[in-house]
Structure formats: C-alpha cells, structure tokens
Amino acid sequence: MDKIASLRAALVAANPEFAEGRSPERLKVFVDQGRIVSRRTGKLGFQYRYAVRLFFEGYTQGPDLIMVPLLLWLRTHQPDLLLRYATEDENIRFAADILDDKSWDVAITFELQETVTVTAREDGSGWDVVHMPEPSPDDPLMDPSLDTPEGPVLLEELFFGGVRILPRDEDIEEP
C-alpha cells in the first residue's frame, strides 16, 4: 500500500514536529477495515480499499496545519474522494481530545483505494505488479461535463455494439 508512505511524508513535511529526530512516534497512521476487491476477468488485477486513521498525539499547532496538507495530498492521490458529493459529510471525519491549553490529540479517518495491475510477462517468467497512479483531476475523463471543445454533444445518433439504435431506420423521414 504505497499511498500510506506518501501520505505520512506529506504530513511530516508540513508539520516538522513529527520529523525524524523530533517526535515521529506522535504521528500514527493506521489502516482499518481493509478489503481486496478483485473480479474474475481476463486480467489479473485488484484494488486495495481501506480506511485510514491518522492520529496526531499531543499536537501543538492549529488544525489547519493538518487539514490543508491532507486536502492537498488527497487532491492528487485520491481525487475522487473530494468528488463524492452525495457523501461529502462522511468522506473525512475527525475527532479531537483537548489535553490542555497548548496541546490536543486529533484523529482523522477517511477511505483510500489503490488500484494494482498484474500482467504476465511475455516470456512466461512471472508477473509484473504495478500500482497505478490516480487519474489527474485535469484529465478529461474526470470532468463531469459532456461538452467538447466544439460545444455540447447532441444526441442525434446513438450506437450500441456498432449498431445504430437512434434514430431507428423507421424514424428517419424520407424526402
């Protein structure tokens, strides 16, 4: 699960109090409710799906120094989490325990997914395992718009399996 190391590094970079030589043990990262999702298809691949629980022990900074780096990391590494509007109130959850007037414990929980492709080597010597990057939020496939650079796509014809189903031949008026 490559995302965990990347996430921890991003949070440490923004919060030097958790860096090596200081107090790295005060930032704990847990993986809970892990699942492997795979289907029997022509390709061998799977997805890790899991809940991440971040625990900041005795944190002495403001919450924005946690939340902003986390949101920036999610925009790149799990952009779909920020696009789940139907569940946006549940996507990222947190709790805090105020220890005193200078420190607090903070727990944050959210879901991550990692897609893994597994392909057989051409020479039959084994398998290549690749953790796939997330699609860029700038990728046209991530854009919910159905417009093209020339304008909106109109439903004039519809094809299914190479067969035109709209308009049907009987719907076309002859001149």
CATH top-level class: Alpha Beta
Percent strand equals: 35-45%
The count of helical stretches stands at 3
**Number of distinct beta strands:** 9
Q: Could you say which overall geometry the principal axes of the C-alpha atoms support?
A: extended
Question: Which secondary-structure class do the elements indicate?
Answer: alpha+beta
Q: Spell out the helices and strands N to C.
A: HEEHHEEEEEEE
**What is the alpha-carbon Rg in Å?**
23 Å
Name the quaternary structure.
single chain
Secondary-structure map with pairings?
Layout: H1 2-14, E1 27-37, E2 44-59, H2 64-77, H3 88-91, E3 92-98, E4 104-120, E5 127-131, E6 147-148, E7 151-152, E8 158-160, E9 163-166
Antiparallel strand pairs: 1-2, 2-4, 3-4, 4-5, 6-7, 8-9
Give a summary of the structure in a few sentences.
This protein is α+β, with helices and mostly antiparallel strands. It contains three helices and nine strands.
Explain how this protein is built:
By secondary structure, the chain is of the alpha+beta class. The protein has one domain (2-134): STM4215-like (2-Layer Sandwich), CATH 3.30.2000. The chain has three helices and nine strands, in the order H-E-E-H-H-E-E-E-E-E-E-E. Strands 1, 2, 3, 4 and 5 form a five-stranded antiparallel beta sheet that branches. A two-stranded antiparallel ribbon has the order 6-7. The longest helix is centred in the middle third of the chain and has 14 residues, at 64-77. It starts with a helix and ends in a 9-residue tail after the last strand.
